[in-house]
Recover the amino acids of this structure.
């Protein structure tokens, strides 16, 4: 009687201490949900964008085709998809814990000088989910699945943006190549004129050497751009999952890149799949923590066994089998603090995932603010360089006239020509950076791709 009383007191103590521990868990997921509401409205947003998906930014059928080819064939994205399918299978596996387990057994005993003995059995086992521990485990698996779904969506969006940027970069590089080729043609003509003047005794070797030096330098730049274009095409092939060394015909002019739709921070951040994945990671960790704490509580296992022994294998379990019903109530009393430590570790994992969510959110906010500010700054710089180029072209025309009249040296003309081409290249680069930044901004705003 004394042992029964001691056992009952121990079970009650375990129950009360376990329940108290569960009730002390911090609600990290709710705290995380409130953080986006504290983000102030985006500043420096003078845009009136209307694009709500990445694929709406650039109206190019060729680019659309490349994006969806990448989504279908990119091996990195396919790995993420397979991990998602693993998570789906793991959830189905976890849901099986709700149901009883049925096992069949059969054995034969061949003893000397006696009849063979055959034993058949059916065992039905079931854990009573007294504390909703199994449901917590299933909920954790569900949250892990949601996390992986968001991770897969984030990978799709990132891949689409990388494909678009890679294609737009090819447009930019080929335009830069055209500018350098124009510079090279101009220098070649200048060199020819200088050579003719030198042969007539109207110039010096210094003028000819300076012209040839500029020509060789520009030829090196042209070769560098050609190599860069080929590397860009190979990078795009890798994104598309192609093993062939394909080349691409891209437009001579930059396409129109729409500005993405900018909404309130809370709406924007709610769309970001990386933030969704981080939140579900918190929820999954909290469910795992609840499971770990409930391991401290008593559990009830029910087992029903149907068995029979016969001298005939066919008659086993068919000739008056016996039922046995067992109910076990168990509770952890002393395990060296392992269960308590496991619960604390699981609780700390929730705290870790909460801090990871905060870090992800801060990164997201920084990305949006930087991209919005960059759009405005690039627009202003583009305007200034455009104005500078217009003035420079007027200066170039004057120096060409002065050179023909003999009032300017060839070195002065070469210098002004170089400055003009440098401004054209700078303006082209700014145009690319601004258009590419809109792709970056759309991704930061959570404007992904649809199925």
């Amino acid at each position: 009687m004394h042992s029964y009383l001691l056992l009952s007191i121990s079970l009650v103590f375990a129950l009360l201490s376990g329940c108290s521990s569960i009730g002390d868990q911090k609600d990290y997921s709710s705290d995380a949900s409130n953080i986006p509401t504290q983000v102030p409205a985006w500043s420096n947003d003078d845009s009136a964008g209307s694009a709500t998906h990445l694929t709406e930014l650039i109206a190019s059928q060729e680019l659309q085709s490349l994006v969806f080819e990448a989504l279908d064939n990119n091996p990195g994205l396919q790995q993420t998809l397979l991990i998602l399918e693993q998570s789906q299978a793991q959830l189905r596996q976890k849901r099986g814990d709700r149901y009883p387990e049925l096992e069949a057994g059969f054995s034969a005993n061949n003893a000397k000088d006696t009849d063979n003995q055959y034993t058949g059995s059916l065992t039905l086992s079931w854990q009573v989910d007294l504390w909703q521990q199994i449901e917590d485990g299933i909920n954790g698996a569900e949250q892990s699945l949601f996390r992986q779904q968001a991770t897969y969506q984030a990978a799709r969006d990132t891949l689409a943006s990388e494909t678009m940027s890679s294609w737009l970069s090819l447009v930019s590089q080929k335009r830069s190549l055209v500018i350098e080729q124009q510079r090279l043609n101009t220098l070649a003509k200048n060199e020819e004129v200088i050579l003719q003047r030198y042969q007539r005794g109207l110039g010096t070797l210094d003028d000819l050497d300076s012209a040839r030096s500029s020509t060789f330098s520009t030829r090196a730049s042209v070769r560098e751009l050609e190599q860069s274009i080929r590397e860009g095409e190979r990078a795009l092939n890798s994104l598309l999952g192609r093993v062939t060394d394909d080349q691409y015909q891209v437009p001579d002019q930059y396409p129109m890149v729409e500005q993405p739709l900018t909404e309130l921070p809370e709406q924007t951040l709610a769309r970001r799949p990386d933030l969704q994945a981080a939140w579900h990671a918190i929820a999954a960790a909290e469910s795992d923590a609840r499971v770990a704490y409930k391991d401290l509580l008593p559990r009830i296992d029910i087992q029903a066994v149907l068995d029979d022994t016969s001298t005939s294998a066919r008659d086993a379990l068919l000739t008056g089998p016996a039922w046995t019903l067992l109910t076990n109530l168990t509770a952890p009393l002393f395990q060296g603090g392992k269960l308590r430590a496991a619960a604390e570790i699981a609780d700390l994992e929730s705290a870790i995932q909460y801090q990871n969510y905060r870090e992800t959110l801060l990164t997201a906010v920084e990305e949006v603010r930087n991209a919005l500010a960059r759009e405005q700054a690039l627009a202003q710089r583009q305007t200034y360089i455009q104005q500078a180029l217009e003035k420079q072209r007027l200066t170039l025309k004057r120096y060409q006239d002065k050179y023909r009249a003999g009032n300017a040296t060839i070195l002065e003309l070469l210098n002004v020509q170089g400055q003009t081409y440098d401004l054209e290249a700078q303006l082209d680069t700014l145009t690319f950076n601004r258009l590419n930044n809109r792709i970056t901004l759309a991704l930061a705003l959570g404007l992904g791709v649809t199925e």
Q: What stands out?
A: The radius of gyration is 37 Å.
